[in-house]
Amino acid sequence: MSCQKGNINRSRPQKHQNHTSFKNNLHDNSQKIKLINTVEVINVCERCKKIIEWKIKYKKYKVLKAPTKCIKCEQKTVKHSYHNICLSCARQQEICPKCGQKCQIVEEK
């Protein structure tokens, strides 16, 4: 345990410190990992972009196998992982396709 219940401050430093950063393709050089590493996260808000990039960086990202249903138009048009709303509905209503909030959307470069 990092700290007891109610005891906010730790009295000792971390026991094991990482010497190198995590590499998601260190032991697995498959085509799937190469595809995931080339995914460009666009058309989402800044917060959702950071979340998806974290998932890619630490090998938690799962590729969407089949299109899923949009929560706005009820059609199977969502083709990106972790998105709930299709891009056409998100552009019409000017919302983020992942979180559904009205915020600044990060566009393509």
UniProtKB/TrEMBL annotation:
InterPro entries to which the protein is assigned, alphabetical: DUF2039 (IPR019351)
Entry-linked Pfam families: DUF2039
Compositional bias segments (type: Polar residues): 1-11
Region (Disordered): 1-26
Protein's name according to its UniProt entry: Uncharacterized protein C9orf85 homolog
Organism listed in the record: Pogonomyrmex barbatus
Gene that this sequence comes from: LOC105429387
